[in-house]
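Obj.: predict assembly geometry.
Materials: sequence records (below).
Method: joint structure prediction, all chains together.
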Amino acid sequence: MASPQQINNLQNSFQTAVNLGGSPGQVSTSPTQSFMSSIPRRMSVSKQTKALKPFSTGDIKILLLENVNETAVEIFNGQGYQVEYQKASLPEDELIEKIKDVHAVGIRSKTRLTEKVLKHAKNLVVIGCFCIGTNQVDLDYAAKMGVAVFNSPFSNSRSVAELIIAEIVSLARQLGDRSIELHTGTWNKVSNKCWEVRGKTLGIIGYGHIGAQLSVLAEAFGMHVLYYDVITIMALGTAKQVSTLDELLSKSDFVTCHVPATGETKNLLSAPQFAAMKDGSYVLNASRGTVIDIPALVQAIKSGKIAGTALDVYPNEPAKNGAGAFNDELNGWVSELVSLPNVILTPHIGGSTEEAQSAIGIEVATGLTKYINEGCSVGSVNFPEVALRGLDLDQENVVRVLYTHHNVPGVLKTVNNILSNHNIEKQFSDSQGEIAYLMTDISSVNQSDIKDIYDQLNATEYKISIRLLY
Ligand SMILES: NC(=O)C1=CN([C@@H]2O[C@H](COP(=O)(O)OP(=O)(O)OC[C@H]3O[C@@H](n4cnc5c(N)ncnc54)[C@H](O)[C@@H]3O)[C@@H](O)[C@H]2O)C=CC1
Ligand SMILES: O=C(O)CCC(=O)C(=O)O
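Observations (raw structure tokens):
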């Protein structure tokens, strides 16, 4: 368990990154930043900058669903935002009601922010996915509304990799079954079809953050590692990339999936893929429930082709914890699956460790706060990444203009015409697909000018959203 001191340390390292103007995502990976963090303060190149705020931060309303970690709540409370906190996800109709007047929403993997839901979010500025996956959000639609989406790209990767290692050993030794038997009084000391994992081959589908981390752990156990990915990725240790999924399937004793939910990964493993696997091999999935065709997996286990499976994710998952929530009504195959031998089922807990959750809470809450208070979109998954250096502490009458617009010619000219009575201190624009995001600091702005600037920008043809910070 992470101690309060460890959580404090994590918070401090994120704060250091924020002060240095780096993306939170760089904190644990960038050697430069860890070097910078160790420089005594008097030598630090960072300087204090003026805090920009949207307006009264007490007006910022944040809806946090799905038991987002307390570290995030502390960060938002520290900013003076109004936080509404719920442990579960919400059914669509309640979500639509709640989302109507909030500026930010924080979710994990279950809340579906579809176009239908987002259409009602009139004040929404930013979405935080307190997890890795972002498939639960309509990212394109959010961008078209001018809403940036942030996630935590790797804070729970290690936790998932460790769970998979535990499950590989558990499947090889039929631990789930032995434990259930003994819980009900049955002593069943057997070695038939129980194996060491040393010398066996692990096939990893998707060699990203989790797949690569797992590769290192598996080799430390003496396993051979093969991986298949749609892009060429440098192998860690002595792992080998194979060029086809079939090659991986035919050579592996354990096959584990670590791909995102996309059209291409839907039913990536189905009847033909199970048929291509070694007799008596094992299947693991802690990515998304759509990646494995579970009825086909049930048949492959029944026929003896597959010797066991460990699943953490399902096509339909209950909205909240509770007895009886995982049933045939939710997924038609549940009773059949649970009756099979050597099947380990976990309730989407791959990333559910104290370490991962507190780090995710800090990382995503920091990203959201920087976007709300400064307009910085670095690290967003659906938005052009734009940031400007901070203002000097003594700078007066400066306004930061955040202008999201359709990516068409002539917009910059129109906007700069409107801003031309003021000095443009600095300006940065970037585009991604159909949308563009422009950030400008203007000086010599009287309070009385602000409404006029806003109204003029608001009337421009290609505007998607505007925010003014001062
Ligand atoms: N069970 C849990 O609690 C958790 C589940 N996840 C899931 O795991 C997934 C993977 O996470 P990361 O490793 O962080 O993602 P990542 O983005 O770092 O890596 C994914 C890899 O899959 C590859 N890929 C994409 N499509 C592919 C295909 N059709 N065939 C083969 N490879 C393909 C990509 O090129 C990439 O290398 C996430 O998208 C998320 O859905 C993530 C964290 C926790
Ligand atoms: O812990 C969660 O709620 C979701 C974990 C997950 O699936 C992810 O990070 O993508």
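Conclusions so far: Residues 108-109, 131-133, 156, 351-352 surround 2-oxoglutaric acid (ligand 2) (CB under 6 Å).
To do: check interface contacts against the pulldown list.
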